[in-house]
């Protein structure tokens, strides 16, 4: 008798038992996708909780994460609150973009945003935007409660730079 050759994955199709390599791969991909969606939902809920814990006034806040993009919606009390929520979400590990779908109850002028680079200090940033390094407390206050100390900023962090009154 001798050695017989067969098509490796045909048995599952012919007899309806087992799974083909393609079926196993599809199931593994579906399971990985489900795990990723579950993780993204958990991260979104954590971000919503963080915003509430920071005392930022927003109604019906919703954060949705898809891969490295976050979409936020809800009604912020004012423009400063809206921008702080954007920063809380955007400055989180793994988030590359934030799609802001929020509305604002009390409309105000929008602030500028600045991405911190190596060597930046709040004083240096204030000098750039306001022409006076001693205006750094304005930037610090505009980024509370996300900033706990004026000296604790890091490269890649995005800060609100409000207009001076």
Automatic annotation (TrEMBL):
Residues 112-161 form the LysM domain. It comes from the Bacteria. InterPro entries: Bact_Kbp, BON_dom, LysM, LysM_dom_sf. Residues 20-47 form a coiled coil. Keywords: Coiled coil. Residues 38-106 form the BON domain. PROSITE patterns: BON, LYSM. NCBIfam families: PRK11198.1. This is Peptidoglycan-binding protein LysM. It comes from Lacinutrix gracilariae. The gene is lysM.
